[in-house]
Design brief:
Keywords: Cell cycle, Cell division, Cell membrane, Membrane, Transmembrane, Transmembrane helix
CATH topology of one domain: Ubiquitin-like (UB roll)
Number of helices: 7
Organism: [Clostridium] leptum DSM 753
CATH class of one domain: Alpha Beta
Distance between the termini: 168 Å
Protein name: POTRA domain protein, FtsQ-type
InterPro entries: FtsQ_DivIB, POTRA, POTRA_FtsQ_type
Strand content: 15-25%
Structural class: alpha+beta
Subcellular location: Membrane
Helix content: 25-40%
Length: 381
């Protein structure tokens, strides 16, 4: 009985399963993820979770890809722009090279303007030759070479005329004065350029006094001790040419604030202050060309007040100064004045005064005609 009961009890017992031993956790293993609270979206899980880190990594990767793509596109556009620029420059360079070797070859060289020099000599000094390229010639160097070797040229301009012509334009310098310097005379133009070094004054060229030379080189501008004197020479020469006053034999600048001009070696023209020079010299021309002024008359013509007071004065060499006023409507009124020479001979009648400028109260009046066909200067001197 006992055995049967024991056997039944043993049969009713269930075997107890054995648990497998757990492996030790790895050192780098991640901690167990925490579940998100109920109702919270999966995207808002804690960044500590693997899902959050993967989402952040994806966003970061997408942003990097976008930045890289933008940079690559920008670089590609820049590269294309540089390539186009290089291609355009290459095409232009090739065009210029072709033009320099094939097109614009010079076949005509001519000198424009009158001068004392032979045109072929001028062309030779310019350095320009037929067959050269019109674009590549050095005009400045050619102009300088001509000016240095030909002092009597006031200006030289080398000009291109497409497709194949070169014009050398020249103007001749006019001698304006002779200045004594180191036992010789320096001949200068109105601009002060040294034209010639001569042993004696040139005929028909006035001698300039009161101009101390510091340096004088052929074809270069003269250097004076007083630079204002050179400016005064230029101003007087410009006014003289505009007024048409010829036969000037001397220009005295000893007193620069009151220069004088000697006309025909016999009449001294006083200019006073060096202002309104053109008008004053127009007045002098009107007086000197009048029929009342004898060709052999000597004396002093004062036009210093011609522009301010409308008066000019003539003082004969053997008489006293006299004055006569005129209006633009009445014309020239002259009085006869006689003077006895030391030998007792009588001088011919002379105009005692010529009104040479408009009065201050009548700015519109013109200079009265002082001769048969004398010059009539305007009031805008």
């Amino acid at each position: 009985m006992w055995n049967m009961g024991t056997r039944e009890r043993n049969q009713n017992k269930q075997p107890v399963p054995r648990e497998k031993p757990r492996k030790p956790a790895a050192r780098n293993s991640r901690p167990p993820e925490k579940r998100a609270p109920r109702g919270q979206p999966a995207a808002q899980k804690s960044s500590r979770g693997s899902g959050g880190r993967r989402a952040e990594a994806a966003v970061e990767k997408k942003e990097k890809k976008r930045v890289y793509s933008a940079r690559r596109n920008k670089y590609r556009k820049l590269k294309i722009g540089v390539l186009y620029t290089v291609m355009i420059l290459a095409i232009l360079t090739a065009g210029i090279a072709i033009g320099a070797t094939v097109l614009f070859k010079i076949d005509t060289i001519q000198v424009v303007g009158e001068s004392r020099y032979d045109p072929q000599e001028i062309i030779s000094l310019s350095g320009v030759e037929k067959g050269e390229n019109l674009i590549t010639i050095d005009t400045a160097e050619g102009e300088a070479a001509i000016m240095s070797r030909m002092p009597y040229l006031e200006t030289v301009r080398i000009k291109r005329k497409i497709p194949s012509t070169v014009n050398i334009e020249v103007t001749e310098a006019q001698a304006a004065g002779c200045i004594a310097y180191q036992n010789q005379y320096v001949i200068i133009s109105g601009s002060g350029k040294v034209l010639e070094l001569a042993q004696a004054p040139l005929e028909g060229v006035p001698v300039i006094k009161g101009a101390a030379i510091k340096e004088a080189e052929l074809s270069e501008e003269i250097v004076l001790e007083d630079e204002t004197v050179l400016t005064l020479i230029s101003d007087i020469e410009t006014a003289r040419a505009a007024a048409g006053l010829a036969s000037v034999t001397e220009l005295d600048l000893t007193n620069p604030v009151s220069p004088t001009i000697t006309y025909d070696g016999r009449i001294i023209i006083k200019l006073g202050m060096p202002t309104d020079l053109e008008y004053k010299l127009q007045t002098a021309v009107a007086v000197l060309t009048s029929e009342d002024m004898k060709t052999a008359q000597r004396g002093t013509l004062d036009v210093s007040l011609a522009a301010d007071k409308g008066r000019s004065y003539f003082k004969p060499e053997y008489g006293t100064a006299s004055q006569a006023g005129t209006s633009s409507e009445a014309g020239v009124q002259s009085e006869e004045a006689s003077a006895q020479t030391a030998a007792g001979s009588e001088l011919s009648s002379i105009p005692e005064n010529i009104s040479s400028a408009p009065d201050a109260s009548d700015s519109g009046a013109d200079l009265a005609n002082t001769g048969n066909d004398g010059a009539e200067p305007s009031s805008g001197g």
